[in-house]
Write a structure and sequence with these properties.
The relative contact order is 0.16. Strand 3, helix 1 and strand 4 form a beta-alpha-beta unit. This protein folds into two domains: 130 residues, Rossmann fold (3-Layer(aba) Sandwich); 238 residues. The strands form three sheets. Strands 10-11-9-8-12-13-14 form a seven-stranded parallel β-sheet, with helices on both faces. Strands 4-3-5-6 form a four-stranded parallel β-sheet, with helices on both faces. A three-stranded antiparallel β-sheet has the order 2-1-7, with no helix packed on it. It is built from 15 helices and 14 strands. It is 39% helix and 17% strand. The protein is globular and about 60 Å long.
Amino acid sequence: MKGYKRADGKIGIRNHVAVIYTVECAHHVSDTIARSVPGVEVLGYAGCYSDPYAFRMLVELGKHPNVAGVIIVRIGCESTDVDLLTSLIAESGKRVEMINIQETGGSLASISIGKQYALEMIETAEKTELQEISLADLIIGVECGGSDATSGLSANPATGWAVDRLVEHGARVIFSELPELLGCNDYLLNRAANEKVKTSLLDGLVRAQGLGNLLKTFAVSVGNEAGGLTTIEEKSLGALCKAGTKPIVDILKPGQHPEEAGLYLLDKVGLLDTNQLTIYEENDNDGLVTLLASGAHILLFTTGRGNVVGSVIAPVIKICGNPITSKRMSDNMDINAGGIIEGIHTVDHIGQQLFDFIGEVAAGQQTKAEMLGHKEYSIPDKPGRACDLYG
């Protein structure tokens, strides 16, 4: 398979141009630019006031190797430091242009300029040098959503099997969701590659437990309960299965990238502050964005009840563990792991199927979410001391 070689030496498996809006007031202009030029995707942050977490996400998404060029659209009076955002993304060596709606004369002029930039960037992207790549060049993110009682028995174990094979082939794999791993403390700590990782893991678990206590809620939704999950421990044990069996070599914070082959845990839980408490994760799209900001080329998403979300920039592979859901929502599911529940297939069989499909997607095969145009996206506000965790 081949990838797109970027100026900073990184390799992409997609060749998108990104339009980034820096405040909700610039969202419509950004959407219009993107709709006018195939191959252009929109992302951004709605808040007018600067948020360090959101800023870090925008920088890392703009620098993502699946992005060939960036157009930043601002209204002109937002508090975010747009000049700094532009310069930090430009450090990746890709072309970055900024449009100030107030200075260009309004929406129509800004859309016209943006369309021209986008067409030029797409033309340049199509000439990007291709080079042979392997799984060792990839970062894979792993997420779950819409879990039910089948998830921990089928989709997650099969994904874990594929994760083990990816690590063995030199890939970097990231899983996250510490609040959904409560009750698995001993299992996680026993998999820490060294004492430093064990200390960081324990710190994250303590913060996740404290956050749940302060919010009076844990990571079991009404949908999870309707799907047959009864406790956070039951859900946690199932969620852990998607991380395979390899040692956890390091703990990442949002925006940090894995440098060496191996399995990584992404710690997204902020510092606890009862005066300015931060919600851990508002939705699955928020979770996918953090994995993208850590450089994930492909996102593996397991589900039992069914989830249709895709994402910007990187393909999302859906693995469904419930045979009924897999058939009912076949338009959305890439891998049907329901055969494990029915006794038709083994975990190894479905894991191999997923592993093979990951290679096909890296080589250009579109996922169901990509074919359907699912590009859901979210960056929530994370104010207060929570931002201290992200540097």
